[in-house]
Amino acid sequence: MHQMQVNRAAVDNVEIIEVAETPLAPGQARIQIERLAITANTITYASIGEVIGYWKFFPIDREGFGQVPAWGFGIVTKTTGPLEVGSRYYGFWPIATSVVVTPENVRDTGFVDGAAHRKDLPQIYNAYYTTPNSDDDDLRALLQPLLATSCLLDDFLSESAFFGAEQIVIGSASSKTGIGLAHFLAARKPNGPKIVGLTGTGNVSFCNGLGLYDQVVAYDNIIDEIEQNPATFVDMAGSATVRLALHSHLGDMLKYSCAVGMSHWNQLGSDKNLPGVKPTLFFAPGWADKRRKDWGSAELGKKMDASWRGIAKESSSWLSVAHHNGLDSVPAIWASITGGSSRPDIGNVVVMGG
Questions:
Q1: Distance CA 93, CA 194 (A)
Q2: Which domains does the chain have, with CATH numbers?
Q3: What is the pLDDT of residues 75-124, one digit of tens each?
Q4: Alpha carbons 163 and 50: distance in angstroms, whole number
Q5: Distance between CA 123 and CA 171 in Å, rounded?
Q6: I want to staple 24 with a disulfide (CB 3.0 to 4.6 A). Which of 28, 178, 286, 338 is the partner?
């Protein structure tokens, strides 16, 4: 089998490595990875892998390197337990050709990976869902986890009355999570706050074309164009330079600063001398756990499913799926995202059997 291993100290450094397959213990199953979505969110998993523990899901025995998880589909090829060969699941997989799981709580709808090293990791990442082949597989891999975060963010901000903000400033407005949040906020019009999208100069036209943002501002124009009115900042990118510029410009008008993503992995910097409110990490699985207790698992699942499907139906106007063949295609995609040259209107799906 082969894995893409990532340098944990410099996440733009990746290698495809051949490793020996691990023999199955009783009750385990080998899953062949069928297809994965590689997005800026995948880079975030690497960027904050030490903080949140993303390196722990699929550990490897190589000092300084790790496997980054991605969302997609896998098929059972061998089993010594309750899963059936040929069954297909959607979930959180390593960027690799195969992986071994230890299924627990097996039902018609799916299972939970009960491997010992995953016991203390967020439940939302350990669940795998029975999924027959479908025309929306690519969009599910690309959009479901990101738009679930968008939906939870919208719920969190609304629950907090937007922290008294008159405008929500979304950093990395061209990201799929940013677009999703803008979509949910736009649905609150005319009573919701103004939606301001921050993006690179090259993506201003794309973001304007979405019809979701009340104002789109290039990173270089923060001081000139963003009004000094009460604001909440939702940061999908993690750039220290952008964060400092916005905090300095808004001062006391910045009521809340929310850190979500870190796709600008090489611009993270320190918040030690940052003016105003200190950024607070929004951890979507934590808020999902709260809502699971508030609403029940069934109701939360229904809301999450509706959240991505509703936007996915409209995504053909701004998103095209690009298919890539095999694990060897991932480093080039990875380099385009970490290097800042990836296009917001392209969704990259790697078909491992290609």
A1: 37
A2: 2-133+319-351 (3.90.180.10), 143-286 (3.40.50.720)
A3: 999 999 999 999 999 999 999 999 999 999 999 999 999 999 999 998 88
A4: 29
A5: 28
A6: 28
- Supply the angle between the helices 40-47 and 176-186 in degrees, to the nearest 10: 110
Q: What is the DSSP string of 185-205?
A: HHTTTTTSPEEEEEE-GGGHH
List the one residue out of 78, 36, 71 whose CA is nearest residue 326. Answer: 36
Before 190, cis peptide (omega within 30)? Answer: yes
> Would residue 252 be called left, alpha or beta, if left means φ above 0 and alpha means ψ between -120 and 50 degrees?
alpha
- Output the pLDDT for position 325: 96
Q: Residue 91, Cα to own-chain centre: how many angstroms?
A: 13
CA distances from 88 to 67, 125, 177, 184, 283 (A): 22, 17, 26, 31, 28
Report, in angstroms and rounded to the nearest whole number, the Rg of the chain calculated over CA atoms: 20
> What is this structure's pTM?
0.89
State the amino acid at position 36 in one-letter form.
L
**b/e 242-254 (16+ beta carbons within 10 angstroms → b):** bbbbbbebbeebb
pLDDT bin (cut points 50, 70, 90) of residue 273 is confident
Nearest-angstrom CA–CA distance, 188 and 150:
14
What does the alpha-carbon distance between residue 214 and residue 208 come to, in Å, rounded to a whole number?
Answer: 9
